[in-house]
Amino acid sequence: MISCRVFVPELEIILKDAASGPDEIDIDWLPLRAHDQPDVLRNDIQLLIDAADDVGTYDAVFLAYGLCGNAVSGIRAGLIPLYIPRAHDCSHILLGGYTAHAKFFKENPSRGWTSRGYLEEEGDPFRAGGGGNDWDLETLVKKYGEENARYVYDALHASDSSGDKVLYYLDVPETGSPEFLLKARERAKERGKHLEVIPATLTFLSRLLGGRGGSEILCIPPGSAIRPSWDKQIMISDME
What we know:
three-stranded parallel sheet; globular
């Protein structure tokens, strides 16, 4: 399995349960916010998929990512099947599927949200599209100059400057914690926002590890690649 660290709390529970089953699952974690550089993330994922072929004992590769800004577009399965959720991003996966994701984000796709995984990894968990403390205004000015930095900073904080006063906390019951909920409320208050708690689920990630494909889990056959479908399927195999 190859996963973003946003899913550490959820996958630790799922993998612990899976340990009593017949299959052994190894996991490689990639950094949170790696999708900010989609070309780099795509290359890192492909290297890990190719390395699984070199090991020669795996039956499948599970990819715990969504389309993630097209970061997975073009990723190719090696000698074994590759399974990935048909999802836009990690919020889509935590909410359990297309319908729930559309319900909460269709009217305001830039609305900030967080989860326990983000709260464990970062001090600024609501920064949609940003990169934690590496993307503060001072750092952006050094990278891009004053004018360009202001444009990038405003884009990363679009939800703060809008009239929307709500931020979401995606709460998975199995990983729920009063400590992290309080932390989320404090971070929302610092932004002058109200925190709304949204029920989340392990279902999508559990389904992924089932390796059975289906309507919301895409199976990429050996040698085939992922490509966006620009519809409710979100992504397909280039052999379709």
